[in-house]
Design brief:
The chain is α/β, with parallel strands linked by helices. The protein is 41% helix and 17% strand. The chain has 13 helices and 14 strands.
Length: 395
Amino acid sequence: MKRVSIWLLAASLVIFCAAPVMASKTIKIGGLFDITGGTGSVGTPYAEGVRDYVRYLNEEKGGINGVKIELLDVDYAYKIPQAIAAYRKFKSSNVVAIQGWGTGDTEALSPLIKKDKIPYFSASYSEHLTDPKVTPYNFMVGTTYADQARVALKFIKDTWTDKSRNPRVAFIYNDTGFGRSPFFTVKFQGHHFPGAEDYAKEIGINLVAKPIIGLRALDATPQLLNMKKADPDFAICQETSVMATILKDAKKLNLRTKFFALNWAMSGQIAALAGDAAEGCYWTNPFCVWEDDAAGVNEAKAISEKYHPGKVQIVNYFQGYTAMKVMAEAISRVEGEVNGPAIKAALEGMSNFDTGGLTVPISFSDRSHKGSMGLRIYQIQKGEFVPVKKVLLSR
């Protein structure tokens, strides 16, 4: 009798323990975010976009195919050792995919991502991270930095009216993998990926200055004074919120140079910080802005309004939101077990996925993990972002 009681007790414990495990089954996604580091000004709204889309799916849609998403996110403060530690935590927690962040940490993690077969959506749009032969599990939704810089250069060349000489251009960047990525040849895992510097030579643009300005610089005057000696017609900038300082200091120095911000270097917030110094600045932007009117944009705005009443989101929110939307779409297409290789296959089968105006349609293949092949060029006119050209690129 005593033995029977023990067995009954053991069986009841197994049932009691097993039930919560089954009930708590989720799709685990890692989130590597910069909230407090050098790119935290843009990383924070990006993270909010990812989190909001996950919350929306769980609360309004019941998750993905009836299974809730569990987002395990970490603020790694833009530090590569902390990114590696976070990745190990994600792996031990059995995440099936990761929303990542910067160039340097994505480069450092790519061999692990490849070995462990975990799809990784980089918020770094560095072109060398899009080649499936080199980084088979890395994907990106945004138009690559090098493509953005090439678009800016082509726009400069096409609108140049002085036939007596070539346009003169400066590249302003921070001395990180992120900063260098658009402009210079990247040597990565035995491969060479040319940047916009080569393209400038090809189309007849003279590169006359390459000022380095840190992501948290409080004063850009010394670098801009040196740049002024070269007298560039345009300066293409790969920065984040320090762009406001650059524009204000350029105005103080009465520079005639026109500025071209790549996607992270401009937003409504940065423009507001720069004030009237931002007037005339161009911007390459692969994503929507709050003022856009399209189905996907309106959905995102409604979700933001629900969770953050009265808040007008800057472009970085839509970047994170879109990255999570595309990842969730791929997961929803998986038949059978949701794991890294199955998500990768679903992504590589994604062709012209309509984001509802958040971006151009998104496509991946087993030959290219460049998701977006288009953007708009804006110019700040009378304090407003005015679209001046839509650009679609060929693969």
